[in-house]
Amino acid sequence: MTAACLTISNLSIVLNRIGICGAGVPPAAFLAHHNEQTRRRDAGATIPMKPLITAADIERIPQNGELPVTDDTIITPLAREEAERRGIQFRKISHSSQPTPGDATSGDISSQRSARIVAIGADHGGFELKEQLKAYLREWDYQVLDLGTNSAEAVDYPDFAEAVGNAVASGQAWLGIALDSAGIGSAIAANKVPGVRAALCYDRATARNSREHNDANVLTLGAKLISPEAAREIVALWLATPFAGGRHQRRVDKIRAIEGRAGAR
Fold first, then answer.
1. Comparing C-alpha atoms, which of 163, 159, 193, 176 is closest to residue 262?
2. Is residue 101 part of a domain?
3. How far, in Å, CA of 11 to CA of 262, rounded?
4. Segments forming the whole domain that contains residue 151
């Protein structure tokens, strides 16, 4: 299942480059920690954001264990549920008690980080979820570039997916999020913008894979197909996951090459 998911997920971006519409893919079976230090594209680089704990982090803690947190650590609702189910306790510590980067282990949560700009746009179907995600993004110390829509009045999703894609491709934003009712149309539209690699994600596995393997720079969500809590978890993990590089860089370069050949026609 996992191998098939990876293959189809990668192909959805490639097919959009040549004018073929890719849709969603089946859920993958793998889950992993979203902030692995050995997975960073640039050695020693960090991705600015507040300390964040998701359900994926809780899965790494032994049964009935404990996890140190600070007063400003953000714990997602799904992480709290998983911790309660497995008897894991959160232990408050001061900032001075946190390990230094050189002492960090794979189970440690990243230290306090600065903000980055995230562009976000939605049609009427994604408007309500967009407003909720904006609040979370600010809570996590990201700067938000809201590209509309500004009400639940009916509008056309390609306009907002294109706006998000342009903001990312031009460097106005670091990453982008586009929402509509299903997320499929926004992914197709955003992928028509040169330089955009948009991925429709619906769980933590697809969110992590799209960033780590495909270097996706636009996330699309189906606001009518996932719960607000699931969307929050997906966005948190997607933003926190770095591109792995290595063999994946060669494949992303081939995606760019397809785009270049299509543009030369």
1. 193
2. no
3. 16
4. 115-263
Residue 79 corresponds to which amino acid? A
Q: What are the catalytic residues? A: 213
Q: What is the pLDDT of residues 111-122, one digit of tens each?
A: 333 348 999 999
158 neighbors 185 (Cβ within 8 angstroms): yes
Residues 168 and 131 in one domain: yes
Same domain, 68 and 124: no
Full-model pTM = 0.64
Token pair recorded at residue 189? 């539209």
End-of-domain residue from the set 61, 96, 131: 96
Measured in degrees and rounded to the nearest 5, phi and psi for residue 5 equal: -60, -40
The whole-number average pLDDT for the span 246-252 is 93
**Is 202 within the bounds of a domain?**
yes
| Whether residues 70 and 168 fall in one domain | no
Identify which of 124, 100, 262 has the alpha carbon closest to the alpha carbon of residue 181. 124
Highest mean pLDDT among 29-33, 93-97, 140-144, 151-155: 151-155
Please say whether the beta carbons of 220 and 199 come within 8 A. yes
Most confident of 22-26, 149-153, 255-259: 149-153
- Which of 96, 124, 156 is the C-terminal boundary of a domain? 96
Distance CA 128, CA 180 (A): 10
| Cβ neighbours around 248 below 10 Å, total | 16
**Do 120 and 200 sit in the same domain of this protein?**
yes
120 touches 164 (CB < 8 A): yes
C-alpha dihedral, 135 to 54 to 214 to 226, nearest 10° = -60
Query: Residue 36: inside a domain, yes or no?
Result: no
